[in-house]
Amino acid sequence: MRIEILLYDGFDELDGIAPYEVLRTAEEHGAGLHAELVGAYGAGTVVASHGTRVEVAAGLSQDADLVLVPGGSWNARGERGAWAEAQRGELPAMIAAAHERGARIASVCTGAMLLATAGLTDGRPATTHHLAIDDLRASGAQVVDARVVDDGDILTAAGVTSGIDLSLWIVEQAAGAEVANQVAAEIEYERRAIAST
To answer: Which of 14, 32, 122, 153 has its CA 20 to 30 A from that of 25?
Structure first.
């Protein structure tokens, strides 16, 4: 399984990097998946919400099996981050196109608002960071109080650290609970329940 974690200026570091670490660790444990960090606008430097600079070698490909979208800076309503990307519209259009090509789409935190802007959560169960729940509900999603909501081709995770739960769930689906539990033990993380619809 090819997984691309889609980074953009203002993304929250933990939203993108924590899933990357979980997924790459799972690959080291024999899971049949490979995760890459990619830039929303191609190769180059992406500056995260707290100033971390990440160098990415490529943009979103045409053949990712799963695209993971981090959140970040939604509530700040600034010039960088999820809210700014939702206003511009290019990134939500990319996400919608990836979904139309057949990729599963996952989000962490307010990345769900980019999925909502792309029209992917309309009438569907989803979750996001607690400070953006009202915005998600207003977008037409059926808000679920859970750390992770799996609705088949769309997966959403709540606040920042729930990206770890999401990633471990993806590992479990790809390689089984034993591998997911091995990864959780290695990173010293206590797994939590998810909501699967």
So the answer is: 153
